[in-house]
Design a protein that fits this description.
- Its main location: other.
- By secondary structure, this protein is of the alpha/beta class.
- The protein has 2 domains: about 150 residues, 3-Layer(aba) Sandwich (Rossmann fold); about 180 residues, Rossmann fold, CATH 3.40.50.2300.
- The protein is about 35% helix and about 15% strand.
- The chain has 12 helices and 15 strands.
- Strands 2-4-3-5-6-7-13-15 form an 8-stranded mixed β-sheet, with helices on both faces. The protein has a 7-stranded mixed β-sheet with strand order 1-9-8-10-11-12-14, sandwiched between helices.
- α8 links the parallel β10 and β11.
- α5 packs parallel to α6 and α7 crosses α8.
- The protein is elongated.
- The protein starts with 5 loop residues before the first strand and ends in a 20-residue tail after the last strand.
Length: about 400
């Protein structure tokens, strides 16, 4: 069966990402959702030697004062390893900072309604601060207004913004694709493949379109005449990616680069390239916008899958939690931050993995992981400012 191929003829910003289905990191993170029990996934209590706060204590305390007795409520979307990394990163950092803050994590069990109810519970129980990592930031406006009116700082670390949150830390889908596009254009030039065509999958649901469009824009910034064939794919599985790749190569044998809009797509495209006879990583390139353990391994083995991107969640989580504690101390914090993607190659993959496994050992990465921008995001907005990639 032939898939419809749309020859690329777009402008860079024809479409902006609308996160109505996926969240954060949870965008990519939420593909393998697993149901969990109705009980809270994790509760971490940090005890300090400071005296407990009284019921009349203000929501913000003088900087360097204890946060003993104050409570942070954390609502995460679902039970997948990346989300566990975020939750554990928050509680580990709370413990490391030794302020006396108590962190409670509850899991939304992949239900947007339960996640919303969890936040309502935090407010009803007079928690002092809120952290959310959500499937979607839609419908939280009134809760964010209530938190703001009561002086409760709220950090949202998700794919989509929560309108009115104190700080939104979001994935820059277009920028993520763009940095991979510029790296791909360099690879094409270095390998004398400037005239090659590109095959790319794109999210046919519309939720993550900007990831592929950003990639194409990044390539075309250097190689404006390159031909890109896009194929819509909502399934985002390695099986679907393999089928799409095989059809693309059959119809367009001059394709030498594949871009998958998810890691699963990229793995399937890799299989298609190998079945078509490609084995030399100097002759063919597969690009993944997600760098999970499988992608790290493929890049490290110098396979055809030679480019990936990591959003450095461990560093961003620590930076975000530190800012939340700063807000609890009565300090003003930025309203919008973007996760800086890191381009992962065979040359740096081991270093990236080492750093992400021990984030506290790399304070410079923590300090530089977030790009702060003036744009105040509401739900449905996508960050438009181009940012520099993070360097390991």
């Amino acid at each position: 069966m032939r898939y419809p191929h749309n020859q690329e003829s777009m402008t860079t910003k024809e479409q902006h990402m609308r996160f109505t289905r996926r969240d954060t990191h949870a965008l990519a993170l939420i593909r393998r959702l697993a149901a969990v029990s109705a009980t809270a996934i994790l509760t971490a209590v940090i005890i300090s030697g400071c005296s407990a706060a009284t019921p009349d204590s203000p929501k913000s305390t003088p900087e360097n004062a204890s946060l003993n007795g104050q409570r942070l409520g954390i609502s995460v979307c679902c039970a997948v390893p990346q989300i566990d990394t975020i939750a554990n990163g928050i509680t580990d950092n709370v413990k490391k900072n030794r302020t006396g803050l108590t962190a409670t994590v509850v899991n939304g069990q992949s239900s947007t309604q339960k996640a919303k109810t969890d936040v309502q519970t935090f407010l009803a129980q007079d928690f002092d601060a809120i952290w959310t990592t959500l499937i979607s930031g839609q419908g939280y406006d009134s809760l964010a207004r209530e938190a703001a009116d009561r002086g409760i700082p709220w950090v949202n670390f998700s794919g989509s913004a929560v309108t009115g949150a104190t700080l939104n830390i979001v994935i820059p889908e277009e920028q993520l694709g763009y940095v991979l596009g510029t790296a791909t254009a360099k690879w094409m030039a270095d390998h004398d493949l400037k005239g090659a065509s590109i095959g790319a999958t794109i999210d046919s649901t519309g939720a993550n379109v900007a990831r592929t469009e950003g990639f194409i824009a990044g390539v075309k910034a250097t190689l404006p005449k390159v031909t890109v064939f896009k194929v819509g794919n909502a399934a985002s599985t390695s099986t679907a990616g393999q089928s799409i790749g095989a059809n693309l190569l059959q119809a367009h044998p001059d394709i030498k680069i594949f871009f998958g809009w998810t890691a699963d797509d990229a793995v399937g495209l890799l299989s298609a390239a190998k079945q078509a006879g490609y084995s030399n990583p100097d002759d063919f390139l597969v690009v993944s916008p997600e760098a999970n353990d499988q992608i790290f391994k493929l890049i490290g083995s110098k396979s055809l899958l030679g480019l990936g991107a990591s959003l450095g969640y461990p560093f961003g989580v620590i930076a975000g939690e530190n800012l939340l504690e700063k807000a609890l101390h009565g300090k003003t914090i930025p309203t919008t931050a973007i996760m800086r993607p890191t381009v992962v190659t065979a040359k740096n993959v081991e270093l990236v993995q080492k750093q992400e496994a021990n984030p506290s050992d790399y304070p410079d990465r923590i300090e530089n992981q977030l790009a702060f921008v003036d744009q105040v995001l509401k739900f449905g907005d996508a960050p438009t400012e181009q940012i520099e990639a993070a360097k390991p």
